[in-house]
# Entry
Amino acid sequence: MFDRYQAGEQAILVHVDFSDESTREDLQEFEMLVSSAGINALDTVTGKRNSPHPKYFVGTGKAQEVADAVRLFDANIILFNHSLAPSQEKSLEALCQCRVVDRTTLILDIFAQRARTHEGKLQVELAQLRHLSTRLIRGWTHLERQKGGIGLRGPGETQLETDRRLLRERMVNIRKRLAKVEKQRQQGRRARNRAEIPTLSLVGYTNAGKSTLFNQITQADVYAADQLFATLDPTLRKIKVEDVGRVILADTVGFIRHLPHDLVAAFKATLTETREAELLLHVIDIADERRSENIEQVEIVLNEIEAGEVPQLLICNKIDRLDDVEPRIDRDEHGMPIRVWLSAQQGIGIELLFQALAERLGKQVIMQTLSLPPSEGKLRGRLYQLDCIINEDFDEQGNSVLDIKLPFREWQQLVKQGETNIEHFIQT
# Structure
């Protein structure tokens, strides 16, 4: 129904500098987006304006310059580093005789390329349908309004109305399926809450190094690349933190300037892991000159998804790209870690991150000596599973004498869930 760009196509990029800071976009970031989509940029047309032109967004003279560039370079698509109104897209396509794609559609299509899980694909499709529903009429400009011909006449419904109805039905269907997935996620979260396992969530600007850090910490094999939106589908892994015990670590989608609202809305279910996390690990590309702006943009999106109040630990990543910067922990006036400087790529400073996590999450630690008779092999096995045994000896009666060290909440779980009373075996 719609003309869509394809990877490998030849594009003219259009970028406008506006005087209003809130609407300004970053050209270098846009070029990375285009590259991530697999499109070949032939030329970039830039300009300055105080406000968008109502018909062409860029003004009549600049629009003609774009049309000339399309003919000169034999391009087959125009990519705007801005969100365009449907009428502006239509006017530009008529003038340039070439497809026009705005920044929002480009980001949505990159997400569509990267989605791997069933849930991710549904969320992207819902976001695309929301966005494209406002541009529906463009798909049918080559048709007459009324169906015609033998066997094609409907009950008085125009082609456009039929398609709007089908679109609405598809969106309702996707929402129902996503609600099912969200129910399953909630059950998983409830189980983790019952087991009192804290969740950490990696957040940050796209391409800050979240997946590389995730792989370093968990020894996982999550796809990580030097491109925007390399990670789309959330990944959860268990890790062990000293004096804290088991912790769930979630890798999430990266944020970007002016992230389309349709995407934020569609991914709210996925980002629940971020909202309900005990601690956010905010990964920052410390070597990026625009790091302050990127931090600000991440904070904006966190507030949008209602995660602005969740405590944060800042991870200053990519220190290997800076001169004379050593891995370290920065602390607040109370001595609590607030920033960790490291390089996920080189594996430098990872042990400092675990130290900071232990301090931020650590509760009271229990140290006990237990004397377990041979009949309590199951409890002994459970203690080994928890990796909390410091030392083991055997007394003259054949009892296993264990020195254990574990977080208070894991001790509480053993007390509550154990078939036998573990407190009965404490040596005084």
About this structure: The chain has 13 helices and 14 strands. The longest strand covers residues 40-49. Residues 365-424 form a domain with the Alpha-Beta Plaits fold (CATH 3.30.70). Confidence is low (pLDDT under 50) at residues 1-5, 138-153.
